[in-house]
Amino acid sequence: TQAAEASRGKRMNKLPYHSALKPEDPCAAALAKHVFPDGSIALEWDITTGKLPGEFGQCDCFYVEPPWRAGMKVFNQRAKSPDYILKDVIEGIAAVVAFEERPIVLICGKQDSKTYMRLCPEPQQIIQTQIAFHKCDALAFLWNIPYGLDLNPESNETLCKSLAETYDCVGDFVCGYGRTAKIFRDYGNRFVMSDYNAKCIGHMAAHF
How many Å apart are CA 164 and CA 5, to the nearest integer? Predict the structure, then answer.
């Protein structure tokens, strides 16, 4: 109903978004893995390995928003990780996409799109969208999308919600503070989230 959708929209607006443009959660503790009461999972995982752990086997779709090039230094510092560059992350994602048959929606900045096109398998489709919070243009790369699936391209939020209306369990291997997970959970669905920053997992465990 319209009332239910309005209520859901208000809850969505309150969810944290792990952005390099905003301060990180100062209270988040590093956590390697957390299992939620419904069986959903969040775990520390480095996507630059080019593979996914077994926990992602239960997912029936993927929605991912990798870091943008300009934010990589900030995210590396927060994770106390090696000095990765965006190319390292995209190569890891490309290795996953190459062997996946499940639907994948990936959001990237236009300025990074040429690198994705060069390193990743050819997408089924690329559509225009925008990042809802920052009102900036973005692109959605689509792989393995079944015929007839209606994706609302208005924003990254509407694209994620379109998947939540159809699928039962989403995977996001660059999950940040887990906004993808919260959207799916609000639709009564499950999730498997991972990030190379263990503090993101701690944040989810504390706030979900």
Answer: 13
